[in-house]
Structure formats: C-alpha cells, structure tokens
Amino acid sequence: MTIEVSDEIRRNFHLFWDNFPAAVILVYKDHTIIETNRMAQERGYPTGIKCVDMGERKHHAGCKAQTALRDKAAARNVAYYDFLGQVVDSYWIPLAGAEDFYVHFGTDITEYAADRLLPGKRSDHACSSCSGV
Questions:
Q1: pTM of the entire structure?
Q2: Given this model, what pLDDT does residue 15 score?
C-alpha cells in the first residue's frame, strides 16, 4: 500500500516541528511513520515503519492515537515510563483537514512532575497544589 502525502503537508511538518527540542513524528492512521523532525532523525527514528514496531510493544500501552483520530481532537497522556526513567507528557494531534494523519510527540517533564507520578516518591507536605491532589 502506498500512502499519499502531499508535499505541502511534508513541508509544513518540517516548518513547524524541525526546531522542536523533542522527537516528533508525522504518522498515518495505520501507525506508519511518514516524517520525522530533526531531533527524531538525530535519535535514529526511521520512516516507513509502524511506530509500534519501535521498541517493545508494551512501551506503546498508553497510545492515544486511535482516540485522537476518532475524536478528531488532540489526545494527551502523562505517565511515568520505567523503561525511560521519565515522566512523559505525550500528545497525538490529528491534522486539521487531513484527519488520516497525526503528529505525535512526548516531552520529558520529570523535573516538573508531581511526586505522585514518580515511583517510590511521595509528598512530605500537605500543600494540595504541590501534591497534585
């Protein structure tokens, strides 16, 4: 199967995402990676494969791609990933007017995360703002 992607979509992806400080991928609805930004390229992210084939399948358990595509709206997941040792703030964002495609990225927010998101950590104070309650 050949996935048709306009040159405009490809150019715009790079225009908006090449300078983003985290890996970002443009993905087709079947999870095939179409384009990668500079950071993803530096990290060796391939194109033409399904994103679920990167790493172990269990690492994709929090994927919200189908939710984002179904709802035609961005989906978000904030979670601790033990294989990374990080709290990652992840997004799946369908393209307006090209809903068969979405942009996906996750940023490391470990240093900003509430203790409740970190394994083996707890808040030692009663501040509801700080504890994330």
A1: 0.83
A2: 98
